[in-house]
Amino acid sequence: QRGAIKVHWQPNNLKAHEGLVSKTSQVMRAAGYPLILKARMGIATNSHQCGTAVMGKDPASSVLDINCKMHDLDNVWVVDSSFFPSSAAVNPALTIAANALRVAANFKQLAP
Fold this sequence. Notes:
Layout: H1 14-30, H2 93-110
């Protein structure tokens, strides 16, 4: 469909993920939890999308500066999860809120 958003999803970093799951399972068993459920989620659970607006110092390779302001526009800041380089697969709401407060603090410095 023309103009539609398309998600091209591919699992990555699986070796590190498997190591984390293995170590966490060992720790949980040692703590007395005999049953550990560990199912990797697929594309059907693609909540908490992150990483669609790259942050950096160079406008040629990033959309946002280090204060989440768009390089090419003087009055647009992005304070959702799109500047995150990746997702930890946990709800990012508190990190988003903390960053929004950090970005808002910069507004005080910009005000005349």
